[in-house]
User: Fold this.
Amino acid sequence: MKVLKFGGKSLANGVAIQSAIQIITAEKKKGEIAVVVSARGNNTDELISMLDLAQKGEDFSASLQDFIQYHKEVLPTLSFDFEYTELFTLLNAVKIIGFFNLKIQNKAMAFGELISAKVVSALLNKKGVSSQRVDAREIFVTEGSEENPFVNWEVSASKTKAYWENNPKGNVAIVTGFIASDIDGNTTTLGRNGSNYSATLLANFLDAEEVQNWSNIDGLYTANPSYVKTATKIASLTYKEANELAQFGANILHAKTILPLIEKKIPLVIKNSFTPENSGTVINESGQGKGIKAVNVINNCALISVEGKGMLNTVGIDGRI
Ligand code: ASP
Ligand code: MG
Assistant:
């Protein structure tokens, strides 16, 4: 089985969503697949903006209508009444109380991925590719603090396997990225860009042979092409090299993305859904050649040097700095 993950830009209205559907259809013809979707377009940011508006007591209804209308444009016959009512009720409650917390934010953000899976699944079904939505909150379980949840691999793996065993084969599973739930059933998230992690976890749990990460970039580059004109695409990297880039700001790779792949040696292919003929970047065990592969930059970062004799043998300096 192959796991195909699509980022928000690759699922946006217009040519993006159409070409994503084409890619899914073509891959399905080649063999068994599962699809992991991010929220479409800028939906996650839009949901956060609506929460901000509501918290300030401002009118969010026009934004909410635009938000829903965006999805209706792709498939006018698909009803989003349920999602509209749920979001309206949630936002209105925030407006009345003038407050929201992470729990409420997670609940709202989840609609980005839930709607995305609904749209993709409906478009596939319309094309004659039978598919089925999977709400990842039913298979991925997180633990730990609210701010910093981590996935319980054991529980999530067994729930995922059970789900796959009990559901009809042949249907393409369209899994919501990014979201999970805690032991009490509250919605949690895997952090911004977390759908990449959802995809590699799913691949690990289901022993997939490959993960394809479809976004709007051709692959990983030797440097950020918007800063360095001579940067070139990297054909192949090892897990270790890719993980290094993920830790230092390569957005395409959420910091935890690589880990689930290593144990089972599952290759990750980064591909551009707008130019699918491009070979992309392959991340696997062997990589290609030695030496420095890429240079990265972290923005908005300051380095402060503090020195002085008084610091010698003084405990607690770091904390005071
Ligand atoms: N929709 C979420 C975000 O924008 C997760 C993702 O895109 O991977 O961060
Ligand atoms: Mg996104």
Notes: The chain has ten helices and twelve strands. The first helix runs from residue 15 to 30. The pocket of magnesium ion (ligand 2) is lined by residues 8, 38-39, 44 (CB under 6 Å). The first strand starts at residue 2 and ends at 6.
